[in-house]
Amino acid sequence: MVFSEKLEHWYAEFGRSLPWRGISDPYRIWVSEIILQQTRIEQGWTYYERFVESLPTVEALAAASEEEVLALWQGLGYYSRARNMHTAARQIVEQCGGHFPDSYEGLLSLKGVGRYTAAAVASFAYRLPCPVIDGNVYRFISRLYGIATPIATDRAYSEFDALLRKLMGDCRPDVFNAALMDFGSLQCKVVPQCETCPFAVECVARREAKVGLLPVKVEKRPPTDRWFIYLDMRRHDSLLLHQRTEKDIWRGLWELPLLECEGECSPSEAETKAAAFAAEVLGLQGTRFRFAGSFVHKLTHRTIHATFVRAEIAKWPSKWLPNMKVATAEERGKMPVSRLIDRYLRGM
Ligand code: SF4
After folding, report:
1. Which of 200, 201, 232, 318 could serve as a FRET partner for 298 with CA atoms 20 to 30 Å apart?
2. Which of 136, 140, 145, 182 to mutate to test the pocket of ligand 1 (most atoms within 8 A of CB)?
3. pTM for the predicted model, two decimal places
């Protein structure tokens, strides 16, 4: 049996049934692929269903406000994915009359769409012969053929793309790609199930005892540390929130007013710095802050060391930061916040 036949055979028995499989609506396929970047299927599934139920078409997404889109995304992280999708939806409506691009190149021109997503939408929605290449596919194919080219490089992408196009042959691209993705994530996992693998006989990595050595990865830079002091300032059931607008993490999300430090602060140092910040920047003299907790929050490229200090204030500030507002408990629930702030406000 040739590669594609074996793969399809395996897929018919073990492939996953997912709400975005077996459909040809490019909008829904695109939404699912963007959600699943950096997100596990179990978590992404609920988000996908809520997203397409609230915004069922590209026109609906284009017409939504950024806050509405970010609120649907809240908790998923990597918010630039949601902002890019929103921009791309507007691009499709304004420049293409609402018609989704139906070529690989057209898809690639959309904001936030890279080679992987373009190939997924092109193959699943339009059955174009574009192989999907993600971490799971790199792992499976590099082990099966004993390829030691460092992955996530342009050279590796071209090499795997050319090989997979040959292997795809005359198969239906949507079925081939779905099978490839599932095989990499269910069978040829980080700890693979070689005993039951239909490719066990021809697998180079297994034969040469290189399973643990492939794929070859380029060393990643360690995440950088950042130290934040968050000022929780309340009057009755209302508190001050500030929207992040800079080109930085969590742009567009709401959070407590923030003071960024050069390094670690003790709880008492955080209280003193917060009081000075409140006096100088917000005109709130003599505010007494109390340490309210600290979290270490890990993002892919950054580790955030967050210290929270809290104060009950008698009046609202005399000086206002741009994009700062008073939010009641009810309003807070509708404002998109990062997972870190959500954890704090929920008292976790
Ligand atoms: S034999 Fe093991 S390492 Fe090789 S393709 Fe199968 S699951 Fe992956």
Report:
1. 232
2. 140
3. 0.78
